[in-house]
Amino acid sequence: MLKALLKKQFYEMTAFLFISSKTGKRREPVALLGFGLLMLYAVGAVGYMFWLIAKTLCAPLVTGGLAWVYFALTGIMAAAFSCIGSIFTAKIKLYEAKDNDLLLSLPVKPWQILFSRMVGLYVLAFFFSAVVFVPAVAQYFITVGFSVLPAVYCLLITLLLPLGVLAVCSLLGWLIALVTSRIRAKNLVTVVLLLAFLAGYFYLYSKLNDYLNYVIAHGAAVGAKIRTALYPFWKMGLAAAGDGLALLPFAGLLVGVFAIAYILLSVTFLSVVTTKRGEVRPKYKEKPQKQGSAFFALLRKETGRFFKNPMLALNCLLGSLMALVLPVAALFNIDFLTRLSSADGLGQELAVLLFTALVCGVVATNIISASSVSLEGETLWLVKSLPVKTGKILAVKTAFHCLVTAVPVCIFTLTVGILLRLNALLFALALLIALAFTVFCAALGLVINLALPNLHWTNEVTAVKQSASPMLAMFSGIGAVALFVLGYFAFGKHLPAWGYMLICLAVLVTACIAMAVWLAKKGAELFERL
Fold this sequence. Notes:
Number of strands: 0
Shape: globular
Largest sheet: none
Order of helices and strands: HHHHHHHHHHHHHHHHHHHHHHH
Helix content: over 70%
């Protein structure tokens, strides 16, 4: 039975290569080749990024006699990257797999189910860590020359490192599953945790050059801290640099940690999977039914769809999330903003225009309306059967996009506008352009989605990530921002900033009115023919 479970796990792991998540059917040979090349490109791009980091660190540390520090640092990066890539997958695969109930109803022991899923997670953790560590090993041998024993030690480390990552991710996945099972807003917690990981990643990436320069200048001090605070990575670095004896405590620690984690998970696996811990059930309260308008009923429907799926919200609402994060970043860069606001003449006007372009660029990354028709999917007939005019359905989709985009954008514009100390006229025009561009992107996305809908999908996220309309809408919005900037340098610089911004505002309002008229007539007819 364990062999059958492992075979099933293998098919699950490789299904994305051969089965299209858009149609649920097997990929054609040409499509399979194209998808495979795309995956190789993605892996190569990530590996190349970490190879550049390794290239920056390798020569200075190795020539300074700190080869073990180089391997310890790359091992830490590999473990962190693998943990970020595996933690939420561990939660889903172990405790939220759709076939858990089916497998438990069969004559299969729980430990076998857990073991087979852990094997799949090990492969995933190995993949993420190898993408980081293998380029670092290659760079080391390019620098010092190839040796057999260090190569064998590095191979063993590459195989052992995912065990520690798997232990940490499994325990964290168990904690996340336990926490989210006790509250009602599970999806909100998942989104917050994902945003925390993304925020941490982008923060570290923004400081990457500073950290690399510090490590190169203070390699010995960094090594001393690793030796005292991160004992396993100290031994790992020594082993990768050629000390075979150091490999024994490193391997023993990782295998021991993994064994402890596996025992703990096997003891609690059945109870966690079969018990809905602390789930809050709504209590019935008798009260008079309130009659609402069709508009707000449809608006609640759109809201529920986007906020019940964390991955859907993250993919479609990226602009709104950025608009909430950027003001916080602006507060930590007040000196830079002060220098911009104190610039005289053309410098200050250019700063205002670039800030307006930045706000509009953030707005363009929201692709809610560009996927709203596609997300109806096979249930599109339900919406069309409602006793509501088609124009109102399209108006709700546009209004929802504007609502969830305009509020964060206003917060962003107000915060940075105050920090820039804009005069009242420029501030009002910047805010009006941001709001008009929000309506423009909402209407444009809906127009494109009506022309290029994707109603045949097996997963909601597929309708966003593997459809032409969201990508086309996003790049169209970014193109409009580019035209805004290029137009200023072409002829707008001969006008005062407020004059050029007023012209752009008039163009946006005209485009919005034209698309609104089209949606009310031609768009409604096109929707009814879907």
